Each structure stands twice: as C-alpha cells, then as structure tokens.
Amino acid sequence: xxxxxxxxxxxxxxxxxxxxxxxxxxxxxxxxxxxxxxxxxxxxxxxxxxxxxxxx
Length: 56
Description:
The protein is mostly helical. The protein has one helix at 12-52. The relative contact order is 0.08.
C-alpha cells in the first residue's frame, strides 16, 4: 500500500490503515474477553444450580 502526503505533510493513508487495523484487533480482543467472561459466569451458575438439585 502506498501512502500519500496529506496537506499537513503526514502519510495519511498508512496512518489510517494502521489505526483501522488496531481498532479491529482491539475489538476482537474485547469480544474474546467478553465471551470468556460469559462462559465463566455460565459455568459458575451451572455449577451452583447443579449443587442445589436434590439427588434421587
């Protein structure tokens, strides 16, 4: 990917591309963490519900 110099002399294309990639990676990381938290909460809830069930 080539960059173009913006009016301020900065390489805007590369900068935007890198920022977009970082944003995407941060979103993926956030979603994975949220998924792991949800699974832990479900496991904890399932475990506590299971221990309260009467044994026949």
